[in-house]
Every structure is written in structure tokens, then in C-alpha cells.
Amino acid sequence: MTIVTIILALLIGVSLLLMEVVVIPGFGICGIGGGILTLFAYYITFSRYGLLWGVVAVVASIVLFAILWYILINSRFSKVMHLNTTISSRVSDENNNMQIATGTPARALTRMNLVGRISIDGKEYEGRAISFVDEGAELEVIGIEDNVVVVKPTQSDSIDK
Q1: What is the number of structural domains in the chain?
Q2: Could you tell me if 121 and 66 lie in one domain?
Q3: Pairing of strands 105-108, 138-145
Q4: Cα–Cα distance between 85 and 108 in angstroms, integer?
Q5: Which residues are CB-neighbours of 94 under 8 A, at least 6 positions away?
Q6: What is the rounded end-to-end Cα distance, in angstroms, of the chain?
């Protein structure tokens, strides 16, 4: 009866641990239950049958885990669980080659709480202001950083007076 208990505890424990690793992300009920059952089997084996058979149980459970891992990873279930699509979308290169000179006039299309939409020569860009700016305010380009046009309000349109 004890050998059957040890074998069942190892089989169920290793299976639960494998399920926790492969199927259910995180460390939850399956991982805790599998760990407890596996440690229980080790305890019974070491206490009743000695060091040699305890080491055999540990090695057997590691080999069992590896075999079950191989079977599960190469199964049809694994093919269903894996994402097989590729992402082919790209970030728009529309603004990557911005040729906007410093000092170019711009207009705020939205209220800029430091970031907003601006218009330069009829084209719309993302802008970052050095202060808060109201919608429709006149701006001046002071640079470009990471595809964002950095602007400052002209003296008459600054909110932070």
C-alpha cells in the first residue's frame, strides 16, 4: 500500500507541477498541491525506505517531469496553446524625417498641457510645449526630440504670465 501511495503521489504531484508550469501561469493551487504531494512522497520514501530509495524517488520524479514535459510540448494540445501569428504592422514613418526648422511658426490645435497636437504649414504633428498653452495659441518651434516637435508659446500667448 505504501509503495502505491508513493507512486501515485509522485505521479499526481509531478503532473500538477507540470500543469502549473506549462498551462496555468503563476504559482497557484496546482503548483502548491503538486509541491506538497511531491514532498509528501519524498518524505514517506526517505522515512520508510532509507536514503537510497529516497534518492531514487527524487531522480525518478525529475525524469518523469522531463518525459511528461517532452510529451506535452510536442503534443497537439501544445500546438493549439501557442500563438502562431506574426505581427506585420509597423509604426508610421510619416513624421520620422521631419524637416522643420527652429523658429518656424506653429499653432496649437488642442490645449497643450505640455503635450498636444499642433499645426505647422497645414500639417498636423504631435507637439510638446515648455509651458501650458491654450488651443489656437501661436507657437514657435524650438526643436525636435523623438519625433515630437518641441514648441514654446510666443510672448503674447503664454498662459504662465
Answers
A1: 2
A2: no
A3: antiparallel
A4: 41
A5: none
A6: 87
- Segment 133-146, tens digit of pLDDT: 889 999 999 988 87
pLDDT tens across 12-35, in order?
A: 999 898 888 877 877 788 889 989
Nearest to 11 by CA among 68, 80, 89, 52: 68
In angstroms, the CA 44 to CA 3 distance is 9
Amino acid occupying residue 151: V
CA distance 53 to 56: 5
| pLDDT (mean) for 102-130 | 90
Judge if 20 and 67 occupy the same domain. yes
Q: Does residue 12 share a domain with residue 59? A: yes
> Which of 54, 60, 53 lies closest to 14, judged by CA?
60
Q: Residue 144 has what pLDDT?
A: 87
Query: What CATH code is carried by the domain that includes residue 135?
Result: 2.40.50.140
> CA–CA separation, 4 vs 45, rounded Å?
11
Q: Which of 44, 63, 79 is the last residue of a domain?
A: 79
